[in-house]
Specification:
CATH architecture: 3-Layer(aba) Sandwich
CATH superfamily: NAD(P)-binding Rossmann-like Domain
CATH class: Alpha Beta
Number of domains: 1
Helix content: 40-55%
Strand order of the largest sheet: 3-2-1-4-5-6-7
CATH topology: Rossmann fold
Radius of gyration: 18 Å
Distance between the termini: 50 Å
Largest sheet: 7 strands, parallel
Strand content: 5-15%
Number of strands: 7
Number of helices: 10
Amino acid sequence: MEAVRDAGVVVTGAGGGIGAALARRFAAAGARVVVNDLDGVKARVVAEEIGGVAVPGDASAIVAEARDVLDGRVDVYCANAGLASGGTEAADEKVWALAWDVNVMAHVRAAHELIPDWLERGSGRFVSTVSAAGLLTMVGAAPYSVTKHGAYAFAEWLSLTYRHRGVKVHAICPQGVRTDMLANTGSAGDLVLQPTAIEPEAVADALFAGIEEDRFLILPHPEVAGYYQARATDPDRWLTNMNHIQQKWEADDR
């Protein structure tokens, strides 16, 4: 793809799952890829496989190092690292704080580092792995749902603020994806996400189709568009239907 050939690309949380699939797809398209993950061993394995460079560490603090590795230029930044925090409003405040830091503030910090250079050049691409939970919600996972709404809102804000200055933004909102994160969602994930779960490579395919079509919202599960429309058209009916799922989950989980 011409849009990413020779581009300097950073993918966070790329030691496995969606991040690894994105890194492989960008590398296959001719991009120069920095593979980031908290797990340095996993990052190096993926980087070696695709001919990229591993930059392990906290996703919110590696932009400067990644820029150096890419000869001073980051063209595409994939804010993919995320934390699937379950629980209700009663979850410990440390759980809420960590979910906010990883799922939202890491994106904000990266953009703070990237946007000035992109505006000066008149080009740049920010890819946010959000989740359908950021458009809708997820039973049994208040911290995750709330912070993914925040991630979506920030991606939307970036797009409406800077698109006329050459900054392109994509928000990827899949439902279930067959990753370790899905496996760790327990019975709620089994009920809501597993029946329609897709492979990480399908998410990468959806992103590349969205890049070619210059679309902001990327829906690897096309049916999410209908759910999102139903939510906007009749919120009370949508919430009632979601509450029925909540009740079924509670009954099944007893």
